[in-house]
Amino acid sequence: MAKMMIDFPPGTQFEFDQPTVLTVIECVYRSDQSGRALYKVHDSNVGLVYALKVFLIGDGQSIESIRREVVALNRQIQHPDRLPRVRSIQLADRLAFVLMDWMDGVPLDAVTKGTPAVSREDAVLRLGFAAELCRTVGYLHQTRTLHRDLKPQNVLARDARNQRAGVSVLDLGLSVQKRGPVEEGTMGYAAPEQTGQRNLNLGPQTDVFGVGQVLCFLLLGEPLTLYPDDSMRKWSVDVTDLLRTRLHSAVPEPVAALIGRCLALVPEQRPADARALQRFVEASTRK
User: Fold this and answer.
1) Alpha helix (H) ranges present in the chain?
2) Secondary structure (3-state) at 213
3) Cα–Cα–Cα angle for 263, 214, 57, nearest 5°?
4) How many folded domains does the chain comprise?
5) By C-alpha distance, which of 179, 266, 187 is closest to 231?
6) Is there a smaller number of Cβ atoms within 10 Å at the N or the C end of the chain?
């Protein structure tokens, strides 16, 4: 019997006829208001676990445009240990299914259990997680990509007791979508320009606001609820002063002003991007 030769030249295309069957393990979150959900799923063909983002396709947005954004995003991500790559996209009716790498770790809301930082050790650990979050989001910002839905449930501590192990970020679903006419993000963590202030442009400072609210969650146990004043250029309260009355004395004093800058109503008044914010967070723990 002649020996079979395996030789496929560049450009050869393969079509696999074995369908992929995904089994839902758990629902990570679901929002009927925004028409988005994230599931942990199992692929029995290869025995791996993935994250499956499902969302409604908005008006004027095609699956082709989403695919182009996904290809661009995958090319940019050089840190697969911190940011998931997209593996496939499917379209059914008006729903898009985006299959991404599942990132292992402990969500920040499970790390802190919604409790405030009440000791110096707690504060330093949680600020360390915030600095690592800035580092991870900074990798996105270096490639001019925005996350647009940062919240404790989307941020995973790789080691709940060691901030230096780094953090991963889940759910890049909004990163591959065009800005639509409706509000986006998650209530409590979405920046003003994602909700009521639609006249403001999205940018890296949009994610900086999200990081600021995650910082509030880490240190206070919850994000701040803020309302604009009549000028629509600033909040009705001084955020820094509010934080100084609510943060435990174990939290380094400069942190209140830092979060206040992150949560500025106008994007231009916030730190420029996540990498700039990282330097401020790290410096705050040294003072």
Assistant:
1) 63-76, 108-112, 120-142, 204-220, 239-246, 254-262, 274-284
2) helix
3) 90
4) 2
5) 266
6) N
Amino acid 287: pLDDT: 58
Q: Who wins on pLDDT, 47 or 9? A: 47
Domain limits at 50?
22-101
Q: Are 214 and 107 in contact, with CB atoms under 8 Å apart? A: no
Instruction: Say if 6 falls within a structural domain.
Output: no
| Highest mean pLDDT (candidates 27-31, 59-63, 144-148) | 144-148
pLDDT: is 84 or 151 the higher one?
151
Structure tokens at 216: 């509030």
Quote the CA–CA distance of 199 and 207 in Å, as a whole number.
17
The predicted pLDDT at position 2 comes to: 64
Q: Which residues contact 254 (CB under 8 A, 6 or more apart)?
A: 283, 284, 287
pTM, two decimal places: 0.84
CB contact at 8 A, 205 and 137: no
174 and 90 in a common domain: no
